[in-house]
Amino acid sequence: MAAEVSYTTHCVPPAGIPPVDGTTKVQITAPATAKVGDTVDVVWKFTQAASKNPDIIDLPANSVQPSGTLKASGAQSGDVPMTGPRENPAIPKGGAMVLADMKGTLKLTAAGEVKLTPDAYVVNAMGTNTNCTPTQAVSPSATITVTGGGSNSPSPSGSSSNSPSPSGSSSPPPSSSPSPSPSVSDEPTDFTGKVVEIPYTCQSPLGEKKATSPVQINAKKNGGSYDLSVQFKKSVMNSPADIPAGSVKPSMEVKIGGADKGTVHVEGPLNSGAIKTGDPIQIPDLKGTYKPGATGESTLSPGVLLIEALGTKTKCTPDKSLVSLTLKTDKQEGGASGGTSTSGGSSTTGGLANTGSEDHGALKALGLVAGTAVLLGGAVFTFLPKRKTR
């Protein structure tokens, strides 16, 4: 026997999103009869999740995976771990959450009626978890009548395929050697900045986050101007879900100091191809042109970073300014000196794979959906959560 059961549920998304109280509707299917010693397959079908997708972001296809616990009671008792595949249609903002069926197995150890009742479950969306627990007593959804001469001392035994763990990330410490600022005596054209560790405070759809990322600014002289290239060094994170083409774009306002003042806009192209689950997102160098507005020694420091991904924006502001590159500049007509030097560098065409630079660690990043809301992992580095205050 199987029946749909409905129960009130309290769901806790990752930090920054308020809890949700809703109604979960579930149907459990299992064999109506079996014998002691049999291992039976059990299926948990969601007919309604406790909440809809919040009005924050469209969830891409195959980005949501459920797992949960089924309670066995009666002739034998115990917990049966359940897990489902990461399979779902694209879910628009405000749309109904569509969760895949979960499966598990139960070895029957005693004769009699074994009742199966849904309990807590977890929704893993693009690498982050929303935990949902019942707030009322839940009725059994299925009953197995077990026959045969098994042991009359019941012992719980539940097993299942893999239970997903929340996706994590780590950022190994950067390792690179700064190159000295060039001398102008030989009139060099290429200038290599030092790697600086920039502490960012980021405002994301999930609130304020802290992160630190190693950044390097390089320049190539082009007449009286400089073509800039900003690189993020050895930040590592793999994609926990499929990321569609044309959905991740970084940009930065490089801060000008010293003799000159203002900012230089640099940006990278949108990702030209889809990125599969488990693959790193490789973001190219951010490009732009610096036209000096003053003569003297001018400095370039990583500035405000903007990540646009999957319809959301995350703005990251440096907690302090650290100089990566110092240049000897000559004032140019229409140069920076207090304003934005020029609009920078990249169109929305082009790929992420070949940036023309292979001697630095590729920036690896992604947008994470927290529960059903996006959290960009800086889209360039791993966020370290900060306690939310109000």
Automatic annotation (TrEMBL):
Keywords per UniProt: Membrane, Transmembrane, Transmembrane helix
Presence of the UniProt keyword Transmembrane helix in the record: yes
Species per Swiss-Prot/TrEMBL record: Streptomyces acidiscabies
UniProt name for this protein: Gram-positive cocci surface proteins LPxTG domain-containing protein
Residue ranges with Pro residues bias: 171-181
Region (Disordered): 67-91, 129-191, 327-355
Chain segments annotated as transmembrane: 365-384
Compositionally biased intervals (Polar residues): 67-76, 129-146
Biased composition (Low complexity): 152-170, 343-355
Superkingdom as given in the UniProt entry: Bacteria
Residue ranges the record marks as coiled coil: none
